[in-house]
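Tutorial handout. Part one gives the primary structure; part two gives the three-dimensional structure as tokens.
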Amino acid sequence: MGPRDPTGPRCYALYAVLGALACGLWPAAMAASDERRSASPVAATPCWRVEDFVVAQECTRCSSFQAKTIAECSPTGFIEKISCATSKRDEFKRVPNSPYGCSCRSAVMEAHVFWRFVGTMMCVATIFAVLVVCRQRVLDRKALEKVRKQIESI
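Part two.
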């Protein structure tokens, strides 16, 4: 028996695995183990990541009791209550941090930030328009002065 003998013990194991694949025994066992492995992440995945949902309660600050009992409260201190359409479950969703300090971004706050931006841009535009007009007057005076000197020299 040499190292490449097709009748050795290693080859018998390989033939057994290939036979199980050919008969369809092994794919069924693999599918069952895949179902067991994939069942836990699906259960741990929040329903709002895989389904359509409706916001049942807008963004609110967590109470001290909620901060201790609901894991989504701990990172930011703000949560939304979500109702999933297909599974009919209610879950909490963590609200991400906002660059404006408050984590809840309501329509009223968004409108306030938008109009503050528009007002700021209008003020900046007015200041630069006045600067352009003043600069144009200065340049016009210099040009008139130059023309007047040229006419006087003739």
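Part three, for discussion. Confidence is low (pLDDT under 50) at residues 26-42. The radius of gyration is 37 Å.
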